[in-house]
Amino acid sequence: MSNFLNLEIYKLTKTFYLESRALLKDTRADYFIKPQFQRAAHSVNLNLVEGTSRITWPSRRNFYIIARGSVLECMTILDLLKEEGFITIQQFQYHFNKADQISRMLYAMINKKGVTKKGA
């Protein structure tokens, strides 16, 4: 079994993606915002996992940076959805806080080489 399945951040990014799909399922948000948000939420998860598979630190770090960029994209879209009235303040706060937690974890992984060394 792959090690990434046991990572707390993987579990969080997977839940974030699944909950994001559910959030947008019934919204009237523009046709281009919904798929963009879903792609970005999925990108967080996929780039995290791809990063864990890399052997060299620079390669791992690059994928973690991409994953963090995608989570920040999700946070921006959440803010826009809130401002346009497509999601409630409570929905915004819940999903934004989850994304912020993921962003902080990725930031720590990007800046602390020892946290993500092979075998850690």
Short overview:
This protein is an all-alpha fold. It has helices spanning 8-25, 33-53, 57-83, 89-111.
Q: How would you describe this structure to a colleague?
A:
The chain is mainly α. It has a single domain (about 10-25, about 35-115), classed as de novo design (two linked rop proteins), CATH 1.20.1440.60. It has helices spanning about 10-25, 35-55, 55-85, 90-110. Helix 1 runs antiparallel to helix 2, helix 1 runs antiparallel to helix 4 and helix 2 packs antiparallel against helix 3 (about 55-85). The longest helix has 27 residues, at about 55-85. It is elongated and about 45 Å long. The two termini are about 15 Å apart. Residues about 115-120 have low confidence and may be disordered.
- CATH-level-4 superfamily name: 23S rRNA-intervening sequence
* Through-space gap between termini: 16 Å
CATH topology tier name:
de novo design (two linked rop proteins)
SS-based class: mainly alpha
Q: Determine Rg (CA atoms, Å).
A: 15 Å
Largest sheet entry? none
| Count of domains | 1
Succession of helices and strands: HHHH
Q: Kindly provide the name of the CATH class.
A: Mainly Alpha
CATH-derived architecture: Up-down Bundle
Low-confidence regions? 114-120
Main attributes?
single chain; 120 residues; mainly alpha; de novo design (two linked rop proteins); 4 helices; disordered C terminus
Topology:
Blueprint: H1 8-25, H2 33-53, H3 57-83, H4 89-111
